[in-house]
Each structure stands twice: as C-alpha cells, then as structure tokens.
Amino acid sequence: MKAKKGTVRVITGNAAAAYAAMLCRPDVATSYPITPMSEVAEQLSTFRAEGVMNAEMVEVEGENSAMNVVAAASIAGGRTFTATSSWGLVYMYDALLQAAGFRAPVVMAIANRETPGILAVSSGQQDIIATRDSGWIQIIVENCQEILDQIIMAFRLAEDYDIQLPVMVNYDGFYLSYLSEAVAIPAIEDVDKFLDPLKMQPQRPKLQPGVPLGCGTHGIEIGFMELRYKHCQALQRALKKVDAIDAEFKEFFGRSYGGQIEEYRTEDAEIIILTSGGAAGTTRAVVDAKRAEGVKVGLVKLRLFRPFPEERLVQALKGKKAIGVIDRSVAYGWNGGPIYTELRMLSPKIGFVPILSYIDGLANMDITIPHIERVINEVNAAAKGKSYQEVTWIPLEE
Amino acid sequence: MVIKHKNIFETENAWSNADKLLLCLDTGSWRTERPVLDQAKCNYCGLCALYCPPQCMLDKGDHFESNLAYCKGCGICAHECPRGALTMVPEREFDNEG
Fold first, then answer.
1. Fewest CB atoms less than 10 Å from the CB: which of A22, A29, A196, A294?
2. What is the pLDDT of residues A316-355, one digit of tens each?
3. Does A281 reside within a domain?
C-alpha cells in the first residue's frame, strides 16, 4: 500500500510543524508563543479558525501551563501537540519531567534557540541539552520536509503501547523555523492510515469521568524504582522502534531519514564527521566536494539524541580512523561539546581513534562551508597520525 | 541483569485504582487511628466520602464505611462530619488490622 502523492507547497519550518500536527488530528493543541516558534501557534489557530482542525486550544498564560494542559489531556486519553523554544522550554521544566514520568505521549515541536544566561534571541541547540535528562525522546531534524515527516512519525512513536513516552522534535530555530522550502504535504486520509496501527494495540489507561482512577500515584521505594526502570527500558525500546517506524514511513510515503542516525557515504569512509540538525545539510555538500578531491570522508547525522543510539553509532563508526564532531551547543563542565562527550563514552567499542570536538554555530553564528572544510582537513590529518587540538571553538580562532 | 522484583504497578506509569484493578498501595498500614461510625447519628450525607483524601469511603447504601485497607487514619472524615457520627479510635483498641 502506498500513499498518494502529497500536495507540494512552499512553507516555513514552523508551518511544516503546524501542518504535521493538524494532519495527525490532535484532540488538544495548545502552545504559548515564543520566538522563533510563534508561527506554529498562529498557523494552528488558523487551521482551527478555518475548521480544518478540530483540536481544543486552551488559551494558556505561559509555557508551564501549556505543558500541564497537554500532559493532562494526554493522560485523559487525548492526542496532544504543543510547541516551544528555549526560555519557554525551561519555564515548563517541572511539567516536562511530570509529562515524562506520567508517560504522557505528548508530541512537542521545538525550534531550538540559545538558553537564558546570555540574552540571545538566536539559534543554538542548548535547549536540547538543558532538557536531555528530562526522560523525553529527543529527535533532531534537518529540513522542513523532515520536520513534517518526523512529527507524523513522532505520534506513532509516542503513542505506541510499548513506548508511551513524550517526544520532542527539534529543528534549528531561525535557520529552519523561518526557512521556506518546498514541502510535500500528505493527504490527511493517508496520515490516518499511517497512524491506524495505534488503534489496533492495547489501550493505555486513561482518566475519565465516573471512573475512580489515579495517575501520578505516590511511588514509594521499590515501586519508585520499578517505575524508573520501566521508563528507562521504554527509552531503550524506542531505539529500534524509531528505525521500524522510519522503515514503515518509507514504505508508505516513500521518504526515509535513516531512523536513529542517517549515514551518508560512510561505507568506505576513513574519517567521519558527526553532527546534527541543519548543519548536516551543509556538511553533506562539503563531504561531496572533499570526496571529489579524494578524501574518504563520510557524514553521520545524529537524529535521535535521547535515547542515545549507541548500537547504530558503533556500527557506523567502528574501524574509522578519526572522527570530528560538530556541536551547536556546549557541555558545561566538560571540555568539548555534548555530542562529542557522549560519543567518547563509546570509544572502547569504536576503537580508540582521535575524536575531535568542534563548537560552532552558537547564537546564529553560521556553520559555514569553510568551517566544515577545516574540520575535515584537521580530522584527516589526525587520522594520518598528525597531532591535533582536541577541542576547537571555530569562530574564536578566526 | 536478572529482575527478581515482581511488579507492583501493572501499568507502565503510576496508575492506581481503589477497586484493586490497578495499583493499590498498602496505605492502611500507616494508620494509628481508625474512624468508627455511630450509625444512629449518620444521615448518609456523604461529606465524609467527599473529603476523604485517598477516596476510600465505601458507599453502603444508607451510610459510608471506610475501607481500612487504604484508610490512613487522617481523621478528616471525623472532623468534617456535621453530626459527629465518626470517632477516631486508636488502633491498639482493635485486634484486627482492618
């Protein structure tokens, strides 16, 4: 069975997120606007006003309320969607942990932006890092089409009976949120078909009038450990589920993103550049250019950040001679970026080859073609045994 | 890793249900006093059931009775009863655990 060809429209990343949510027929879609995702809320309100979408929209007074509304609606059995960014994301932090602990399958779009501390209304992935231990599934996407497709896949993942976890779909704020691209928008009937398997599975418990059920019951001692263990296990199960849903999506809609990670020209590669989000697009072009010069370089795009795709990364990186990691955020307390520090934990399985950390693109600094060329040149030299600098903040050295 | 623990929660998250279909914490074991009803004073108004924090008052048709498996002995039902039909009695005066 194949989906019909979608309608192609030129829309922004924010609009793509709103379209995806609308296509999944949420029961509650509530968010509090914040730059650079406000357009998601505006577009959803437009859908609602035009009668295209039936979702309940609650006028919340802040992001904390927004998350509490969608988490509550979710444990009442509803399909829920929200969106936020940076300040908004950390303002809902307690509700974020609650939603994950309640195993409420909320889907949230996040236009990534720098976090509080230094005022910056600009792009960066620090908000992903600030919430990495929230127990949510965190996925990072690269372009507008992927935003739309991944949000549809996120509902399949979140509401899967074996998973029952909230999912964040992250895209670079400013770069992708405001970028207009041609996006194939599937027919809503086809999205219904793709989500149909969710109806065939056992139903999760839900709050309903007249039935005296409690959610968020006091988990004492061993009961608490049991629930934490179940939560961690569900995150581990999500790894393979992400791949399976991606394969199903490819089969039905004809588009695939590789699941947990996307590999590009890695098979015969000697060195690998590991990065995520929009930077992966630029890196792909530079990899092609460097390949033409005879450098055996490949790209691994990290799509799933939580749970961390250990097995897939080991498979992709084992036997490579050197790895360069480009992070658009920092790991406070570590010398190096967050993806870099986490990748280093896999060194015993990958092999103790040089891993070089690059911090770039903070607060709207562009991760440019010359920057990535420099990374590839240095990683290539390290692979050949030359001495190297472990951590580089690229723009600060120019 | 071998998990020897037998699940307390049947569900993935912390769901509970006083009818024992889902998790029931043994909150009755926390109790030091229990509510005892003087049925002659009770007019079945239901305020005790409304105020009961763990919602463990059982509707008996003409009065409410605390489910001692969950009653923590907080005494709110006795405090709220407008007719003083409920009295908190120390556990040591009973042989059974309820």
1. A294
2. 999 999 999 999 999 999 999 999 999 999 999 999 999 9
3. yes
Q: Name chain B contacts of A227, Cβ cutoff 8 Å.
A: 9, 13-14
- Specify the pTM: 0.89
Q: Is residue A212 part of a domain?
A: no
Contact B14 A102 (CB under 8 A): yes
User: Measured between alpha carbons, how far is A315 from A320 in angstroms, rounded to an integer?
Assistant: 10
| Assigned domain for A1 exists | no
The alpha-carbon gap from A222 to the nearest alpha carbon of chain B, in Å, equals: 8
Residues A315 and A173 in one domain: no
Residue A90's domain spans which residues?
A: 7-201+217-253
Q: Which of A201, A217, A218, A233 to substitute to test the interface with B, most B CBs within 10 Å?
A: A217
Closest CA of chain A from B52, distance in Å: 13
Tokens linked to A30: 């509530």
Q: How far is CA A214 from CA A142, A209, A221, A341, in A?
A: 40, 12, 19, 40
Assigned token pair, A132: 């990495």
Evaluate whether ipTM surpasses 0.90: no
Looking at the structure of chain B, the number of domains it has is: 1
Same domain membership, residue A347 and residue A369: yes
The answer to whether residues A181 and A46 belong to one domain is yes
Contacts of A100 (CB under 8 A, 6+ apart): A134, A135, A136, A165, A166, A231
Both A285 and A325 in a single domain? yes
Closest CA to A92 of A34, A24, A145: A34
- B13:A212 CB<8 A: no
* Residue A75 in domain: yes
